[in-house]
Write a structure and sequence with these properties.
Helix content is about 35%, strand content about 15%. The protein contains six helices and nine strands, in the order E-E-H-H-E-E-E-H-E-E-H-E-H-E-H. The strands form two sheets. The chain has a seven-stranded mixed β-sheet with strand order 1-3-2-6-9-7-8, with helices on both faces. It has a two-stranded antiparallel sheet with strand order 4-5. The chain is globular.
Length: about 240
């Protein structure tokens, strides 16, 4: 594996599924200093809380593989285009990241070459080899942003950009399961969908963008509960796309 750009969970490509989680880790390599407090690294600005164990349980239930981002989104945001302003964030939801301030072009390029390129290169190779029927983009969201404190009441958001094939199948299934579901909420995949734009829409592959509210998957019991809810939804969407 190149440095800490990603980790992989083994699974059977014949399932037709690949789970992708850009923000699964809060890891910061020892040679990088972000200059933020430990408490910040446990918040949503640094990691999608709960998605790593949720991805593991979903892979176990579905028999499928996964690729998980290997560094904190404060090191580099793997769900951004290479030239995006927020790729290496200097602030996030009110938290300042001093170690990212004023990076020159050389330092920025080095960060991209070390983490962003290997992650997306691995995804590209994996998807070309396995040709999954469905990519599952797995994220979590905070119930309330510090900088926009309106409550976010949805348990799960389903995000999409131009290709809404999987979303249109999944939303009624989640509704039927009693899940309070956001249709392109708490934010729109038409605004923020970089990984799926490249690897799913760019390859004509259907994708299911799932955002689970982080307080629901903040412990083992919550992760187990939501894996049990989401696994059959994912499987049904996959089967209907085949």
């Amino acid at each position: 594996m190149p440095d800490t750009a990603y980790t992989a969970i083994a699974g059977d490509p014949a399932t037709g599924l690949l789970i992708v989680s850009d923000h699964a880790s809060a890891h910061v390599p020892a040679d990088l200093s972000l200059g933020v407090a430990d408490g910040v690294m446990r918040r949503h600005v640094a990691i999608d809380i709960g998605v790593a164990p949720l991805a593991a349980l979903l892979c176990e239930a579905l028999g499928c593989p996964a690729v998980l981002g290997g560094v904190s989104r404060l090191v580099i945001d793997l769900n951004r285009e290479e030239d995006a302003a927020g790729l290496i964030p200097e602030t996030s939801d009110g938290d300042v990241v001093p170690g990212n301030a004023g990076l020159d072009a050389t330092a920025r390029a080095a960060r991209i070459d070390r983490f962003w390129r290997p992650y997306h290169a691995h995804l590209a190779v994996r998807i070309a080899a396995d040709r999954p029927v469905l990519l599952v983009s797995l994220h979590s969201f905070t119930p309330r942003l510090a900088t926009a404190p309106d409550p976010r009441p949805w348990a799960v958001g389903v995000l999409y950009n131009r290709d809404d094939r999987a979303a249109r199948l999944a939303i009624p299934l989640l509704d039927a399961a009693g899940v309070v579901t956001g249709d392109n909420l708490p934010y729109s995949g038409q605004v923020l969908n970089a990984t799926m734009n490249t690897h799913a829409e760019g390859n004509g592959i259907a994708y299911l963008g799932l955002e689970v509210r982080q307080d629901l998957i903040g412990d083992d019991a919550g992760v187990a509960e939501w894996a049990a809810i989401l696994a059959p939804v994912i499987a049904t969407v996959r089967d209907r796309l085949r």
